[in-house]
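tool_call: predict_structure(chain=1)
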Amino acid sequence: MDNDRPATSFTGISASEAARRLGVQKETIYSYVSRGMLSSRRVEGKRQTRLDPVEVARLSARQRGGAGKAGSLELVVDSGLTLLDPNGGLWYRGWEAVEASRSAWFEHVALWLWGRHPADIEEGRYLFEAPADLLEQATRAVALTSPRATPLDRYLLALASVAEADPYRHGRDRYGVSNRGARMIAVLVESLPVTTNSAPPRPVRGQPRPLAERLWYRLAPRRPSPDQIRALNAALVLLADHELATSTLAARIAASTWADIYRVVMAGMSTLGGPLHGSVGDRTVGLLREAAGAGVGKTVGEQLRSGERIPGFGHLVYRERDPRAGALLEEVRRAWPDSEIVTAADSVVAAVLEEHPTTFPNVDLAIGALIGAADMIEGSAEAIFATARMAGFIAHGIEEYSHRLRFRTRAAYTGPEPGSGGPDVTMPG
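tool_result:
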């Protein structure tokens, strides 16, 4: 490569990996470097060169035509957290998300995303314990909500309450923030009212129950089997982070102002609550319940007639498959082998693919199948999404704290001509 330059602490990607991300041949990468479109650096002491992944991502954005168009915004931010491959791959700091969903508790994955030392991760799971004083304060705040409040509404109130009680909330050290984040997630989950007819298992001090189990008793009406807890845990793991989704970008922007971690999470949660993001899974539940009752043909046919996009299919980034969908549906089938909702989900997928063979089911369909099979309460998709994505919000907050206010986008003004005047008003007396 012609414009190689030595680097001591640079960590980049290989030419082969750059070619894979850009969808070109390896030789094309060499051409990009020679023309100045990409820069490469030699690995000190080795006959190797590495490329900057941020430059590769920016070039990819330009090639897709998404950068620079009025009315659209595509940011490329350097991050060592999550790699999302449009061809159907997802890794958390090198750990494949699907593999993690089958082998680890959500708490392990959160700690890994937060950069805790691998040797500390098993022991660190016990950080996810709700301190009695904070839990009492959060529970009082949640008790003020009406019966119509969603779990996400209650999370936001509990979060504000807990933040006010934390004298160290403005600390930005990775270790302190991750400790605080673990307690925060535990407090928010346990502040939700219990929905089951039987009380959840009592925790042993210093040995909290898995977070998925604690969340289950706030969303589902019946006691779970171990496989059902595994399915909910898999959903939390698979949703823990997803690169720079809109809610994560909001959290990251808040962190860039050095807002405390509670406000970082609050910014992400507020954005996640939109009907085009965290609550799509609640819409797929309705679709699957209707399909189980009225029949798949009638349900899918009505969706096609309405002209509305069928929820639970396609993705803005993935091109051919969402790896999270298949992994979670597999767990749901194992946990509820005789569920009419699960059968309906498989039939809906077959019917939609027959009409639109280029589309594919996404994680929202799998979340809908999980919620429907477990007969969870309204708003459960948002609750699962928000609980899981708190891990990502905190991870991105920790990472962004090393920078200072680096986000300042510009608007393409489309309003009235400057100097054209304003309304005819008069100030009182």
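agent: Residues 99 and 261 are 29 Å apart (CA to CA). Proceeding to next step.
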